[in-house]
Write a structure and sequence with these properties.
mainly beta; Jelly Rolls; Methylamine Dehydrogenase, Chain H; 2 domains; 8-stranded antiparallel beta sheet; 7-stranded antiparallel beta sheet; 1 helix; 1% helix
């Protein structure tokens, strides 16, 4: 008998791109709904209803938009055939517009603007004239006019140095429009030239060729990014007289418009080739997302959604192509450079407001991630699996004896080895500063441990964890 101990020093993130033998003990090849930000392992917080009423759409939901107003937070939702506004006074969702030609969710854009003295939200779909919705209004109105040259069916909008920029016009797929600069009686719904000065005029320019259509606009502090299907450009300058449009020399897979998110004056975007970011000069690939390469290769990102909340980026996607809604969320902690997965729901869209993450579920519920113990009543099933461990030696047999740890709640522990599988449920002690000994069984030269929730109940497993085992050289 040769008793040995080994420690799991911390819990970190998910990594799927390396074989188990090369993974550090703090990484997991298979984990979901776990929170490891403190280094310990705990159940991830869930979400609850942000508003009591749910939407009952005739067609699938595709977009969510949250924004602040003078009267509080406001929410818009889009199905494939209608625009909805949540009326907080009446506590119900109102239909404020019916789309004549339907909506493609990944080509629908929202933008908060001021037109004259009125605050409005612009909604652009690319299939009909852009819409303008005033705060609290029960009907959306067409934005712009033929007289002002702004009645375009654009898909993407952005504000840059006070002007409204728009693109995605199906009649001119490579064209970038801009409005007059607001002030002095000029408003952003006027895209005409102005005889008084080129620098206050509206206008347009063709970026590249129409065979390579514009697929997204994103403003950073000192430039406007122009995504095209096969290329990327940036507009520099603060007025038409010094505008310069320069191609960005970078190789990457093009993202969906809804899979892009701004963080710290960088633009991050998810593709099936990984997570990329634009750093102000060129496009770089995030090394951390190599960890999820196998997952991305088999997932469907055609309707991916993205949001940034605090220092965490969230990307919703479908775990397989046949699903009608996103059922998987990747959490990327930018400061820790670590990834974690969430599942157990069906989402139509994500967005962030005032440091809170909101989601629109497939069945029309507006929810907020508030750290609750459930996904609006549905259990949160947590799983964390260690790599296959040999504790530095494959030539000796290990007999698992005891796992010693501190924590709270109930936790299922499964020990898997070439000698079989042993499962037990541990109840952590409620005595402060005490530890719990969890008996284990199983023997083999390599093994792995799995920690999971019991019936969706929350638990915490504090790091480090100590494993006692018997080690013997094989005869």
């Amino acid at each position: 008998m040769a008793y040995q101990t080994a420690a799991l020093p911390a819990f970190s993130g998910v990594r799927m791109d390396l074989c188990d033998g090369l993974l550090k003990a703090d990484m997991s090849p298979d984990a979901v709904n776990a929170d490891t930000r403190s280094g310990s392992l705990r159940s991830a917080g869930g979400f609850s209803r942000a508003v009591s009423a749910a939407i009952d759409p005739d067609t699938p939901l595709v977009r969510l938009f949250a924004h602040a107003t003078a009267n509080g937070d406001a929410f818009l939702a889009v199905s494939q055939d209608a625009l909805y506004r949540y009326d907080a006074t009446a506590a119900l969702w109102r239909t404020v517009y019916l789309f004549e030609y339907g909506v493609d969710g990944t080509k629908t854009d929202f933008l908060n603007v001021r037109i004259g003295v009125n605050d409005r939200v612009l909604i652009s779909t690319g299939r009909e004239q852009m819409l303008s919705l005033a705060t609290g209004a029960n009907a959306a109105e067409p934005f712009g006019s033929a007289q002002k040259l702004s009645n375009k069916r654009c898909r993407y909008t952005e504000l840059y140095f006070g002007r409204l920029f728009a693109a995605g016009d199906p009649e001119a797929p490579g064209r970038l429009y801009w409005s007059k600069t607001p002030g002095g009686g000029r408003m952003i719904d006027d895209w005409r030239a102005d005889a008084s000065s080129e620098n206050v005029s509206g206008g347009f320019t063709d970026v590249g060729v129409d065979e390579d259509p514009i697929t997204g606009l994103y403003a950073l502090s000192n430039q406007l990014l122009i995504f095209k299907r096969d290329s990327l450009y940036r507009l520099l300058g603060d007025r038409p007289s010094n505008y310069r449009i320069v191609a960005v020399d970078a190789s990457f897979r093009q993202p969906k418009h809804t899979a892009c998110v701004r963080y710290a004056d960088r633009l991050y975007f998810l593709t099936d080739g990984g997570l990329y970011f634009y750093d102000g000069q060129t496009v770089r690939r995030s090394p951390a997302f190599r960890a999820l390469g196998p997952l991305l290769a088999h997932s469907d990102l055609s309707q991916a959604r993205a949001a940034a909340c605090g220092d965490v980026l969230y990307f919703a996607l479908r775990s397989r192509e046949s699903l009608p809604y996103d059922d998987l969320v990747i959490e990327y902690d930018v400061l820790r450079d670590r990834c974690m997965l969430r599942s157990g729901f069906r989402l139509a869209d994500l967005c962030a407001l005032h440091g809170s993450l909101y989601a629109l579920t497939a069945d029309g519920r507006l929810v907020v991630f508030d750290g609750s113990d459930t996904y609006d009543g549905d259990p949160i099933d947590v799983r964390w699996q260690t790599p296959r461990l040999d504790l530095g030696r494959k030539d000796v047999k290990k007999t698992l004896l005891t796992l010693t740890a501190a924590g709270s709640g109930r936790m299922r522990v499964r020990a898997m080895s070439d000698g079989g599988c042993y499962e037990t449920v541990a109840q952590f002690s409620t005595v402060p500063d005490s530890v719990t000994e969890i008996p284990l069984r199983g023997e083999g030269r390599v093994f792995r441990l799995e920690f999971s929730s019991v019936d969706g109940g929350a638990f915490e497993l504090e790091a480090p964890v100590t494993l006692l085992f018997d080690q013997q050289r094989r005869p």
